[in-house]
Design brief:
The complex is a heterotetramer of chains A (303), B (326), C (613) and D (342). Chain A is mostly helical and 303 residues long. Chain A contains 13 helices and no strands. In chain A, 74% of the residues lie in helices and 0% in strands. Chain A is elongated and about 75 Å long. Chain C is of the alpha+beta class. A five-stranded mixed beta sheet of chain C has the order 13-12-14-11-15. A four-stranded mixed beta sheet of chain C has the order 1-10-9-8, with no helix packed on it. Chain C has a four-stranded antiparallel beta sheet with strand order 4-5-7-6. In chain C, strand 6 and strand 7 form a beta hairpin. In chain C, helix 2 packs antiparallel against helix 4 and helix 7 packs across helix 8. The N terminus of chain C is likely disordered. With 342 residues, chain D is mainly α. Chain D is built from 14 helices and no strands. Classes of the chains: A mainly alpha (303), B alpha/beta (326), C alpha+beta (613), D mainly alpha (342). Chains in contact: A-B, A-C, A-D, B-D, C-D. Chains B and D meet through helix 2, strand 7, helix 4 and helix 7 of B and helix 10 and helix 11 of D.
C-alpha cells in the first residue's frame, strides 16, 4: 500500500515548490514549528542575537569599547551594574564587546554559507543528475577527498597560510564547508531522479535545466534549509575556534573566540572567560534549536 | 448458542493531528463467536487496520486516543486490563497476521531468532525451554505453513526471502503456538494474486484445523465471501451493515454494500463494474449524520441530521441506514 | 548586612581549615582576594565599617566559593576521593632533592650551532663552557682560556687554555675542540654563527692547549662575542655523525646534538622531551668546582609560558622560577601567592616600534616624529611591564649606551605640529598605518591599542595586526611587505651597544626581523663599522654615543623602553642571584647560570611538591 | 565473500582519498608566503646556509618534482625535518601521537557509554521528565565547544578548585612508564605501576571530558531519535502483538535495529575528536599530535603541517573504514550484499 502511493505524494510536492508550500499554509507550518517549545526558544535566541548585532551601536552601553579604546584605570572590573559582564584587562566593557562580536560572527556565518551552499548544492545536483558519468565521478571523488579530513584541521591549515584576518578565516572555512552540501544534495538528487514524476517530466521532453531546477532541486531543498540553519551555529563555532588561535578578526575588533583566549591569558578575571563562552554556547544552541524546529516544519512525513 | 469470544461495543478511536483529532473510528460494534470466521470489509483507509490494532492494544502510544467504547475479550474489557493481562492476551489468546510481511519482520534478525522468541515467550511453554526444543518447534511451525527447507530458513534474514515466503513466516509465527483468535489484516494484499490465493488457502486450512476463530480484515468482498461465515461492512470508521455471508450477498440492504457488490467484477454476465462515486470523507470534520450520505444516491434530508443506528432488519442482519426505517 | 555576610564568611573560613580540600578552597579564596585583603579583614573585625570594598570583595569571592560548593557538590565528592587516593601516593618518596624548575618559552635548540633564542641560550650557558666568562659590568674574565694575547694590529688572538677540563663524558678539553667548535658554527652558520661569520677569518690549534683565531678586520668587541662560542667535544660529535650534506663531517653532528650534549658546563642533559621539557643534572666533576654547596642538583626547564599553566604550577609548588614573559596582571597574581616574590632586572632587552622608512606614510620623517610624540610612554610603561624604564636605541643596562641622550616624550601638541609638516597631512585617511604586533605576547596588544587610541585623535588611522612570530619574520624580509610599524623586542647578543647598533641599523641587517626600519643609511653604516673596528673601549663607546644621537634625529624607531626582565620566584627556599641588582649580569642567559643558585628544599613552605628525578 | 569485496572497494576508495588528500595538503603547505628555509634558519644565517637547506628540501625544484620527492619520503615514513623542532617530523609524530591516541580513545569511551545510556533512557521514558531533562541537557551540551569547556575547566580546576590536574599527562613528580604502547595508562598498568596509572588517569579526566562533551550529547540525541523512530516501525508492533515482553523488545529488537545508524554517526564523531583535540590539547598543554599540529601550523612549518594533516587524514579514513566494517557486521543487508555499494 504505502509504497504504491508514494509517487503521487512526491508529485504533489514537486508541483508546488517548498517555498510556496511555506507561504500557503503558514499557520500549519507555524504549528509544526512551535509544537516543540524548544524551537521557539531557539527562534527567540536567534532573533535576539541578530537584532542586537544589527543595532549594536545603539543598544550597547559602551559602543566605543569595540573600537580603538583603552582605559586601564577601569581594567578588570568584575560584573556590576555599569558593566554587566565586567571589563577586560584593557578596561573595555565585555558585554558591549560580546554584542559587537556577534556581528562578525553572523557576517562570517552568512558569508561562509553564501559561498559554500550554492557551490555545494550545484555540484551535488549536477553529480546526482549525471550519475555514473565521469563528471559525477570527478565531483564526488573530490568531495570525498575534502571530507576525508576534519574540517577544523583543514580550515586551520588554510587559515594559517593566509594572512590572519576575518576575510581569510571565512575563505578557509568556506573551502571546507561546501562538500557537506554536495554530498547531501547528491544523495537526495540521486534518489529523487528515479521518482516517477521526474521520469514523467523527462518523457514529456522537459529540458535538462527544467528537470534539474524545477523538478529535482525543490525536492532536495528542505533538508538543505534545515542544514543551513544548523550550520550557522557550527560556522560560528569554528570561527570562534580559529579566533581562539588568533586567526580570526584582529584587535581591537572583538571576536568571541579571541575574547575567550584573552580570558585564558588573564585568569584572574574569570568573567573575561565565562561570558564570551556563554555567548558562544547561546548562539550555537539557539541556531541548533531553531533548525530542529525548521526540520519538523519542512520535512514531509509519510501518513 | 455459541459463547462470544470478542465483542467490541461502540468503539471510538481518535487520531491526534494538527488542528484537532481525526475521528477515524466512530462507534464500531463487532462480535466474534468461538470458532467463527468473521470478515471486516471496507475500502482501504476506512479504519479497518486501526480497529484490528486496537484489539491487542498495539496502536502506537501517544497519538491515538480511545475516548469511549469497550472491547470485551472473553467477557473482560481489554481497555481496562492491566499490562500483564494484556501481555497474556497477546502471547496466548490472540494471534496477529499483518498486512505487509516485509514491514512486519525485523530486518536485522534471522527468522530463527524472531520465530524462536515468539515461541519462547508464548504461553505454550512457561517453564524455560532449551534452545533445541525451540528450534524444533520453530521448524515444525515453518513446516506447517509448508515452507521448503525450514532448517535453512531459520538462519536466513527476511530480505533473503520472497514476499510469499515472508507472509508464510508471519503466519507461522502467529500460529506457532495455539491461539483462540487469529486476526489477519489483509494477508498478502501486497503480493500478487496467485500467491495471495495460496496464502488465503493456507490460512483457511489452519483455521479449520485448529478450530480457532478468525477475524479477517480485507477490502475485497471476494476473499471475504470464500473465507468467512459473517461479514461486517465498514465505511469511514462505522459499521454500516453486518450479516451472515450468504445473506449479505443475497440481499445487501445498505446502499454502500450494494455499491461494493456492484463494483466487484463478475465473470458471469454482469458487464463492467459500477463503482461508487466520490471518495472517503474528510475525517477531520466528517459530514453530519450518516457519513455515507454525501455519496449516497438515496440520501434524504433525514440522513444529514444524525447518524443512523444499527437496526436488525432480519435475523443476524443489521443495517445502519434510514432507508430500512421507512 | 554587609558585616553579617562578612563575619558569616569568616566563620565558614574557620570551619574549613581542618579539611584538606576545603583548605585548598580557602587558599584560592586567599589568592583571589590577595592574602593581605583577608588578613586586614580579619583584624578589622571590631573596628568595622572600614575597608568596605575589601569586605565586599571577600564577600563576592566567598559567594563564588559558596556557589562552587553548592553547584559542584559532585565534583567535590569526586575530588575528595581522588585526593584521598592522591595523598597516599604524594608523600615524598625520595629525600627532597635540590631542584630548580623554571618555565620558559619553547622549543629549545640545545645544539650550540643552532640555538640562539632566549631559552636555548640559557640552556647552552649551563651545558657548555666558553673561552671567557662575562662579568656583571659587561667585561669578560678568563674562563676556559686562562690568558690570551692580542696582536698589535688586533687581528690575531691567541688563547691559552686551562688544563684538565673534563667534558661530560670524561674526555679532556683541548685546543682541537675549540677549533672544531668555531669551525663548526662557522660552517653551519645558524644560531650565534652570524657573530663569527662576519668577523672570524680562520682558527687553528697551535698545540694541545693553545688556539689561535684570526680576524678578517679588527673587531673591538670580539672578546665579548666569545661568550657565545660554546665548546663542544670534537671526539664525541665525530663519533655520532649522521648522514648529511657537510662532506666529511656528514651532518656535523646536528642530528645527535639536537637531543644530546657534548659540553663541559656545570650541568649535563638528563632528559629532553622536545615538545615539553628538559631536565639537566649537576655535573659532579665540573672543572671549576662546586664551592656553592647549595646549587641545584637538577634543573627542569618546563616548555610553557601559558599564564594559566604557570600560575597553577606556582600555586601547587611545582615551580621555583617563572619565565620572563608573564603579563602584568599575571605577575601581580603570581606575586600574591604565598612565598612568591617578583624580581626585576635589566638585561638590555629593548622594546621598539620599528617604522618602515621605505613605505608611505612612515617614510616621511615628520610623520615618524609625530608618531614618536603621540606615543604615551608613561601609560605604556605603567601597563606593559611594570618597572621598565625609557630607553634610546640601546638599553641603559647595556655598556656603551649613551647616558645623556634626549628622547621623544609624549606631547600631542608637538605631534600635531610635526604632522602638519608631513606631506601626508590632510590625506591621512588614505594612508592608514599598519601596526604589527606579535600574537605570542599578550601584552603587546595593549601597546598597540594605546598608540591606536592617540593616533585616532589626530586622525591617523592605525590598524593593529596580530601576527604569529614567524609571519613577522616573513613580512620583514622585504620592504614592501614590512608593515609601517612593527613592535619588536630585541636584546644585544653580547654586552655592548655595538651589538644592537650593528644588528638593528646597518644596511646588512635589512630584511631580518631585527630591522623593520630599512634605514639603509650609508652614514650610519660607516659610523658603526668604524666604531666596531676601534679596539680601545673608551673611544669605541664615544663613537657609539655619536651613532645613537644621530639615530634619534633620524627617528626611524619609536624607542619605547628597556624591558625589565621580571620573574616570579619562590623566595622562601630559593636564592635567585638576579634578584639582587649587584649580581645582575647584562649578558642574556647568564642570569640563569644555575651554578650560582642556592636552593633549600627543607625551608620550603607549603604548597611544595618535591621533584622526583 | 560479499563482505570481502565490499571491504576491498572501501579500502581502494580510502586509499584514493588519502592520496587526493596528500595533493591538497601539499599544495596548501607550499603556498605559504615567505621562504621556509629562511624562516627555519632565522634572520642572520648566511645566504649559503639557507641555500643548502633549500636544496635539502628540494625547494629549488618545480612543484610536481617537489611533490614527488615529498610523497616518496612520506611513503617511506620520512616527512622531512621539522623547521620548528629542527628534528625529523616522523620522530616528533611518533613521540606525540600516542598521547593524542590515549586522549581520544578515553574520550571516545566516555562518549559512547554515556551517549547510549542517556539515549536509551530518553527513548525508554519518552515524553517524561527524564526524556525532557536529558534532551534539554543535550541541547546545552551540543552547543558547548570543546575549547570553551576546556578553558572553563582550566579556570575552575586550575585556580579555584585544584583537585584535578589540568596540565600535561603526568604530575612533575611522576616519571613516565617505560614506553610499550605509548599510552601511559596502559603502559603503567602493564608494568603494574599503579601510582603512575592513577596519576595518568587523573590527568586524562578533564581533557577527555572537555573533548567528549559536545559529541556525547549529539550521540545521545541520535540514539534517542533512532530508537524512537524504530518504535513506530510495524515490526515492533508486530513483535508486541506476538506477545514478546517489553524488555526483550526494548533491549534486543529495538536496540540492535537502532544501533546501526548510531554506529555510523559515532564513528564520524570519533574521528572528529581528533580535530577537536587541536584546541583541547593546546589548552591542557597535552603533548599530543594535535598540539604539535597547532604549533607547527602557527609556525608555518610546512613539513610539520603536511605531515600532521596527512597523518590525521589517514587516521580519519581508517576510523571510517573500521566503522563501515562494524556497520556491515551489524547490518545483514550490507554484509550479505543487497545494498547498492558504498
Amino acid at each position: 500500500m504505502r509504497n504504491s502511493n508514494q509517487p503521487n505524494n512526491s508529485i504533489a510536492i514537486s508541483l508546488v515548490r517548498p517555498k510556496s508550500i511555506f507561504w500557503h499554509n503558514l499557520g500549519k507550518n507555524w504549528y509544526k514549528f512551535s509544537r516543540n517549545p524548544l524551537s521557539i526558544i531557539g527562534l527567540v535566541i536567534v532573533l535576539a542575537i541578530i537584532i542586537s548585532a544589527i543595532f549594536a551601536p545603539w543598544i550597547t552601553p559602551y559602543p566605543e569599547h569595540a573600537g580603538p579604546f583603552v582605559d586601564f584605570k577601569s581594567a578588570g572590573q568584575p560584573p556590576s551594574l555599569q558593566h554587566l559582564c565586567g571589563t577586560d584587562n584593557i578596561g573595555r566593557d565585555i558585554f558591549s564587546r560580546i554584542i559587537f562580536a556577534f556581528r562578525d560572527a553572523l557576517i562570517m556565518a552568512v558569508v561562509v554559507l553564501a559561498l559554500a551552499v550554492p557551490l555545494g548544492v550545484l555540484l551535488g545536483l549536477i553529480a546526482g543528475q549525471l550519475q555514473s558519468t565521469w563528471i559525477d565521478i570527478v565531483i564526488m571523488r573530490i568531495t570525498d577527498v575534502f571530507l576525508g579530513i576534519p574540517s577544523l584541521i583543514l580550515a586551520l591549515a588554510i587559515a594559517v597560510v593566509l594572512k590572519p584576518n576575518l576575510m581569510n578565516a571565512m575563505i578557509a572555512i568556506s573551502i571546507t564547508w561546501w562538500p557537506w552540501y554536495t554530498r547531501l544534495v547528491y544523495g537526495m538528487a540521486s534518489s529523487v531522479r528515479n521518482e516517477y514524476f521526474v521520469i514523467a517530466a523527462d518523457l514529456t521532453g522537459a529540458s535538462k535545466f527544467h528537470i534539474l531546477f524545477r523538478e529535482i532541486l525543490p525536492n532536495c531543498l528542505s533538508p538543505v534549509f534545515t542544514k543551513i540553519a544548523l550550520d550557522v551555529g557550527w560556522v560560528i563555532l569554528i570561527g570562534a575556534a580559529l579566533g581562539f588561535l588568533g586567526l580570526g578578526a584582529q584587535p581591537p575588533t572583538p571576536a568571541l573566540g579571541q575574547m575567550v583566549s584573552d580570558g585564558a591569558n588573564n585568569i584572574t578575571f574569570w568573567w573575561m572567560t565565562i561570558f564570551p563562552s556563554i555567548a558562544i554556547v547561546l548562539a550555537v544552541m539557539g541556531f541548533n534549536l531553531m533548525s530542529d524546529g525548521l526540520r519538523d516544519m519542512l520535512e514531509t512525513r509519510m501518513e | 448458542m455459541e459463547n462470544i469470544l470478542l465483542n467490541i461495543k461502540d468503539l471510538h478511536i481518535w487520531y491526534r493531528v494538527y488542528g484537532g483529532y481525526l475521528k477515524i473510528i466512530n462507534s464500531v460494534y463487532l462480535m466474534v463467536r468461538e470458532g467463527e470466521r468473521v470478515g471486516l470489509v471496507g475500502e482501504s483507509g476506512c479504519g479497518k487496520t486501526t480497529v484490528m490494532k486496537s484489539i491487542p492494544q498495539i496502536l502506537p502510544p501517544g497519538d491515538f486516543l480511545i475516548p469511549k467504547g469497550e472491547i470485551y475479550y472473553k467477557g473482560k474489557d481489554i481497555l481496562k486490563m492491566n499490562f500483564s493481562e494484556i501481555q497474556r492476551l497477546r502471547s496466548r489468546e490472540i494471534a496477529m497476521i499483518f498486512q505487509d510481511p516485509t514491514a512486519a519482520l525485523n530486518p536485522v534478525f534471522t527468522i530463527g531468532t524472531q520465530i524462536g522468541d515468539v515461541i519462547r515467550y508464548s504461553a505454550a511453554l512457561e517453564e524455560n525451554v532449551h534452545q533445541e526444543k525451540i528450534k524444533m518447534l520453530s521448524i515444525k511451525a515453518l513446516k506447517e505453513v509448508s515452507l521448503p527447507d525450514p532448517e535453512r530458513m531459520l538462519v536466513n534474514y527476511p530480505f533473503q526471502l520472497s514476499g510469499g515466503m515472508k507472509q508464510r513466516v508471519c503466519i507461522a509465527m502467529s500460529t506457532s503456538s495455539p491461539r483462540n483468535l487469529i486476526i489477519a489484516d489483509e494477508p498478502g494484499t501486497s503480493l500478487d494474486v496467485t500467491i495471495q490465493d495460496q496464502i488465503m488457502r493456507l490460512l483457511n486450512e489452519i483455521v479449520k484445523k485448529r478450530k480457532t476463530s478468525l477475524l479477517l480484515i480485507t477490502h475485497s468482498l471476494g476473499v471475504a465471501k470464500e473465507m468467512t461465515d459473517r461479514i461486517y461492512i465498514m465505511y469511514a470508521g462505522t459499521i454500516v451493515e453486518t450479516a451472515l455471508t450468504k445473506d449479505l450477498f443475497q440481499n445487501p440492504v445498505h446502499p454502500y454494500t450494494k455499491g461494493l457488490l456492484a463494483s466487484v467484477p463478475r465473470l458471469s454476465g454482469g458487464g463492467i463494474a459500477r463503482g461508487i462515486p466520490g471518495r472517503i470523507p474528510d475525517y477531520l470534520n466528517p459530514p453530519q449524520g450518516c457519513r455515507f450520505q454525501p455519496r449516497c444516491e438515496y440520501a434524504t434530508s433525514s440522513c444529514t441530521e444524525n447518524p443512523p443506528q444499527l437496526i436488525e432488519v432480519e435475523k443476524d442482519h443489521f443495517v445502519a441506514c434510514y432507508l430500512t426505517q421507512r | 548586612m554587609d558585616i553579617w555576610t562578612a563575619s558569616k564568611n569568616r566563620r565558614s573560613i574557620r570551619k574549613f581549615t581542618d579539611d584538606p580540600v576545603e583548605n585548598k578552597v580557602l587558599k584560592n579564596l586567599i589568592l583571589e582576594v590577595g592574602k593581605e585583603g583577608i588578613m586586614r579583614d580579619l583584624s578589622d573585625r571590631e573596628k568595622s565599617k572600614k575597608s568596605n570594598n575589601l569586605r565586599r570583595k571577600v564577600m563576592k569571592t566567598s559567594k563564588f566559593v559558596r556557589f562552587l560548593r553548592n553547584g559542584l557538590f559532585l565534583v567535590l565528592v569526586a575530588s575528595l576521593v581522588l585526593n584521598l587516593v592522591g595523598c597516599r601516593q604524594q608523600t615524598p618518596t625520595v629525600a627532597e632533592v635540590k631542584v630548580i624548575r623554571n618555565t620558559t618559552s619553547w622549543p629549545c635548540y640545545i645544539d650550540p650551532a643552532v640555538g640562539s633564542d632566549g631559552t636555548s641560550t640559557l640552556i647552552l650557558c649551563n651545558m657548555y663552557d666558553t673561552l671567557v666568562f662575562p662579568n656583571v659590568d659587561g667585561s669578560v674574565k678568563p674562563w676556559l682560556a686562562k690568558s690570551w694575547e692580542i696582536s698589535a694590529d688586533g687581528l690575531t688572538y691567541t688563547f691559552d687554555l686551562v688544563q684538565g677540563v673534563k667534558f661530560h663524558n670524561g674526555d679532556e678539553l683541548t685546543a682541537e675542540d675549540v677549533a672544531f667548535s668555531l669551525q663548526r658554527i662557522l660552517t653551519i652558520g645558524q644560531g650565534y654563527g652570524y657573530l663569527f661569520t662576519t668577523s672570524v677569518k680562520e682558527v687553528k690549534a697551535l698545540d694541545t692547549h693553545k688556539v689561535q683565531i684570526t680576524l678578517k678586520q679588527p673587531f673591538g668587541p670580539f672578546l665579548g662575542e666569545l661568550v657565545r662560542l660554546y665548546i663542544v667535544n670534537k671526539k664525541q660529535v665525530m663519533a655520532n655523525l649522521q648522514p648529511g650534506s657537510y662532506g666529511e663531517f656528514k651532518d656535523y653532528g646536528m642530528g645527535w646534538l639536537a637531543t644530546n650534549d657534548a659540553g663541559s658546563g656545570p650541568y649535563k642533559i638528563k632528559e629532553l622531551n622536545t615538545m615539553a621539557y628538559l631536565v639537566m643534572e649537576k655535573f659532579g666533576d665540573f672543572w671549576a668546582g662546586w664551592e656553592n654547596k647549595d646549587a641545584p642538583q637538577y634543573v627542569k626547564e618546563i616548555g610553557t609560558v601559558e599564564p594559566a599553566t604557570v600560575r597553577t604550577l606556582m600555586s601547587l609548588g611545582e615551580l621555583e622560577i617563572t619565565d620572563d614573559c608573564q603579563s602584568v596582571e599575571n605577575l601581580a597574581t603570581l606575586g600574591k601567592l604565598p612565598n612568591v616574590d617578583v624580581s626585576s632586572h635589566f638585561e638590555g632587552l629593548v622594546v621598539n616600534i620599528e617604522l618602515n622608512t621605505k613605505k608611505a606614510p612612515t617614510d616621511d620623517i615628520h610623520f615618524r616624529k609625530a608618531l614618536a610624540y603621540l606615543t604615551d610612554y608613561e601609560k605604556i610603561l605603567a601597563n606593559f611591564i611594570l618597572g621598565s624604564h625609557r630607553s634610546g636605541p640601546v638599553g641603559p643596562a647595556t655598556p656603551g649606551s649613551d647616558p645623556n641622550l634626549t628622547l621623544y616624550t609624549f606631547d600631542m601638541a608637538k605631534a600635531e605640529a610635526e604632522l602638519k609638516q608631513s606631506r601626508y597631512y590632510g590625506k591621512l585617511n588614505q594612508y592608514p598605518v599598519e601596526l604589527g604586533i606579535s600574537a605570542d605576547v599578550s601584552d603587546q596588544e595593549k601597546v598597540g591599542l594605546i598608540i591606536q587610541a592617540n593616533a585616532n585623535k589626530l586622525g591617523i588611522k592605525v590598524n593593529v595586526v596580530k601576527l604569529p612570530w614567524i609571519s613577522i619574520v616573513a613580512a620583514l624580509a622585504k620592504p614592501e611587505t614590512t608593515p609601517n610599524a612593527i613592535l619588536i623586542a630585541d636584546a644585544p647578543s653580547y654586552a655592548e651597544a655595538g651589538s644592537l647598533l650593528q644588528a638593528r641599523y646597518t644596511s646588512k641587517s635589512c630584511g631580518t626581523w631585527e630591522q623593520g626600519e630599512w634605514l639603509q643609511n650609508p652614514e650610519i653604516d660607516a659610523m658603526v663599522a668604524d666604531a666596531l673596528a676601534t679596539i680601545d673601549q673608551k673611544a669605541r663607546f664615544q663613537k657609539y654615543y655619536a651613532i645613537q644621537e644621530k639615530l634619534v634625529e633620524l627617528c626611524p624607531t619609536i624607542w619605547l623602553m628597556e624591558c625589565a626582565v621580571k620573574r616570579a620566584y619562590r623566595s622562601d627556599y630559593v636564592v635567585y642571584p638576579a634578584a639582587d641588582p649587584a649580581n645582575v649580569n647584562p649578558v642574556t642567559g647568564y642570569n640563569m647560570y644555575y651554578r650560582d643558585y642556592k636552593v633549600f628544599p627543607e625551608k620550603a613552605q607549603k604548597p611544595y611538591t618535591p621533584f622526583v628525578p | 565473500m560479499k563482505l570481502s569485496s565490499f571491504l576491498f572497494k572501501r579500502l581502494l576508495h580510502s586509499i584514493f582519498v588519502v592520496f587526493g588528500l596528500s595533493i591538497v595538503i601539499f599544495i596548501i603547505a607550499r603556498v605559504i608566503p615567505g621562504d621556509p628555509a629562511r624562516l627555519a634558519l632565522g634572520p642572520r644565517a648566511p645566504e649559503e646556509v639557507v641555500q643548502r637547506l633549500r636544496q635539502e628540501m628540494y625547494l629549488d625544484k618545480p612543484l610536481p618534482e617537489q611533490y614527488f620527492y615529498w610523497i616518496k619520503g612520506v611513503l617511506s615514513g620520512d616527512f622531512g625535518r621539522s623547521l620548528y623542532t629542527k628534528r625529523a617530523v616522523s620522530v616528533d609524530i611518533k613521540e606525540s601521537f600516542p598521547a593524542t591516541m590515549e586522549l581520544v580513545i578515553f574520550a571516545g569511551i566516555l562518549m559512547v557509554i554515556f551517549a547510549i545510556l542517556l539515549g536509551i533512557l530518553a527513548a525508554r521514558y519518552k515524553d517524561t521528565w527524564v526524556d525532557n531533562l536529558i534532551r534539554t541537557l543535550s541541547y546545552f551540551g551540543v552547543a558547548i565547544p570543546s575549547f570553551v569547556a576546556a578553558i572553563v575547566f582550566m579556570l575552575l580546576f586550575g585556580s579555584y578548585w585544584p583537585i584535578l590536574p589540568v596540565l600535561g599527562r603526568l604530575s612533575p613528580g611522576i616519571s613516565p612508564p617505560t614506553r610499550i604502547t605509548g599510552l601511559f595508562t596502559l603502559d603503567s598498568l602493564i608494568k603494574g605501576n599503579f601510582v603512575a596509572f592513577w596519576d595518568a588517569f587523573k590527568h586524562l579526566i578533564l581533557p577527555s571530558v572537555a573533548l567528549s562533551l559536545g559529541p556525547l550529547f549529539q550521540e545521545a540525541r541520535i540514539v534517542r531519535s533512532s530508537m524512537v523512530e524504530n518504535m513506530h516501525k510495524e515490526f515492533l508492533e508486530a513483535e508486541r502483538g506476538y506477545g514478546i515482553p517489553e524488555r526483550v523488545i526494548m533491549f534486543k529488537y529495538l536496540f540492535k535495529s537502532s544501533l546501526i545508524p548510531m554506529v555510523s554517526v559515532m564513528g564520524l564523531d570519533l574521528a572528529a575528536l581528533f580535530s577537536a583535540a587541536f584546541l583541547v590539547e593546546m589548552v591542557f598543554n597535552w603533548p599530543g599530535i594535535s598540539r604539535y599540529g597547532t604549533l607547527v601550523m602557527l609556525n608555518k612549518d610546512l613539513n610539520g603541517i603536511s605531515a600532521v594533516t596527512i597523518v590525521l587524514g589517514a587516521v580519519f579514513v581508517i576510523v571510517n573504514i573500521i566503522v563501515d566494517i562494524i556497520v556491515a557486521l551489524l547490518d545483514p543487508r550490507i554484509r550479505l550484499g543487497t545494498n547498492r555499494g558504498i
